[in-house]
Amino acid sequence: MMISTYSFVAESVSNLKEELSKAMDSIEFTPTLVFGFVSVYLPITKFMDVFKQQGLMLYGVSTGGEILFDQQRDSILTQAGVFVLTDLKPEVFNIHLVKREEPTTFAFAQRLGKQVVQTIDNPNLILSTGGLDMDGQDMLNGMQSILGSEVKIFGGMAADDEKFKQTFVFTESNITERGALVLAFDRTKVELTGMATSGWIGLGSEFIVNRSDGNVVYEINQEPALDLYMDYLNVSEEDLPGIGLEYPFLLKKEGSEDVIRAVMQIDVEKRSLVFAGSVPEGSTVSFSTSPGFEIMENTRNRIMDFYRANPKTDLMLLFSCVARHVALGPLISTEIKLASLKWKVPLAGFFTFGEFGSNPGQISQFYNQTFTLALIRDIS
Predict the structure, then answer these.
(1) Is 133 helix (H, G, I), strand (E, B) or coil?
(2) Strand (E) or helix (H) holding 26
(3) What is the DSSP pairing of strand 315-321 with strand 371-378?
């Protein structure tokens, strides 16, 4: 059985009602689960109500831009909502929206993992988080400590059109600005696979992180972290955290692939930086930047290789970093279009503040600055 889909764009509540009504009248399947990627400029709670009134379950995330490539359109949008109706069978998935109460992301993720395994024995996950202080790497570590390292986790941190104020995850009934949304699949019934590629390169000198706590960095090279960051890039406090999307840290990881860490918040009083993921004390970091057109060539090659090994899917979700859109501008559509053309199924997604994913044969990781593609296929 294939997963049936119907996708559309809505830019207001009335537009959403119109498009959803049109869909319900024209499609030949009974929708169950909707993926919704929605700008914070739109009335999200009113959008939620529309789906609740129709009895549809919603996996919703606020965005830094919306993506929809299907048979009708190739769209990269702002201040809009992208929606994909699916007929995933309710018995093969569960949705969990959980507000964070714990002081650490790791402890919160463990509670969420325990909740997931109470409903599905062998899950793979689509994961999104709300909250600028969420530690993406600790989120994965906590989930994996409960579910095992073999669990596949794809997804993205919610964004807010580069406002860096509030990000949200939501269902048809509930919403939170500090928590997580998980779509858990029974891996014996639904196949989840994917790829992640960055292309960002190291820039200049290397530095040692002298003092940090999870994703909060206080001191680098014996200097207050915020001061070093500003001095090196010759920027002011007003330029942050926005400039951090363009010049994130490249975190050196012995024995594994280096990862990118982008600044999400600054603490002027403590002179510290809050990153999207953990930056351990004693680690080596450097600034990084986009090499321009080489990114697209790198992504193209990775997509082609991945397609040859995984030519079948029913639906694709894309979690692409806001920084890729900043770096590539309108050319961002080139790498997205290639994936759409190869698999010939709807591709929907959003520009994120951080990505969860993996490449074949690897455990799931937390990234910044990546093109992270998830393939979903019914194998029941």
Answers:
(1) coil
(2) helix 13-26
(3) antiparallel
- The H or E element containing residue 251 is strand 249-251
| Nearest in space to 196 (alpha carbons), one of 367, 377, 375, 376 | 367
Pairing of strands 66-69, 57-62: unpaired
pLDDT value of residue 66: 98
Does the predicted model carry a pTM greater than 0.85? Answer: yes
- 243 burial via Cβ count (<10 Å: 0-12, 13-18, 19+): middle
Higher pLDDT, 102 or 326: 102
Tokens of 145: 């400590």
Distance from C-alpha of 36 to C-alpha of 63, rounded to nearest angstrom = 10
**C-beta separation of 51 from 34 below 8 A:** yes
Residue count of the chain, please give it: 380
Q: What confidence category does residue 255 fall into, taking pLDDT thresholds of 50, 70 and 90? A: low
Angle subtended at Cα 215 by Cα 214 and Cα 220, rounded to the nearest 5 degrees: 95
Q: Residue 68, Cα to own-chain centre: how many angstroms?
A: 15
What is the C-alpha separation between 64 and 352, in angstroms, rounded?
6
Residues pairing with 284 in the sheet: 208
Report how far apart, in Å, the C-alpha atoms of 224 and of each of 161, 248, 268 are: 29, 17, 10
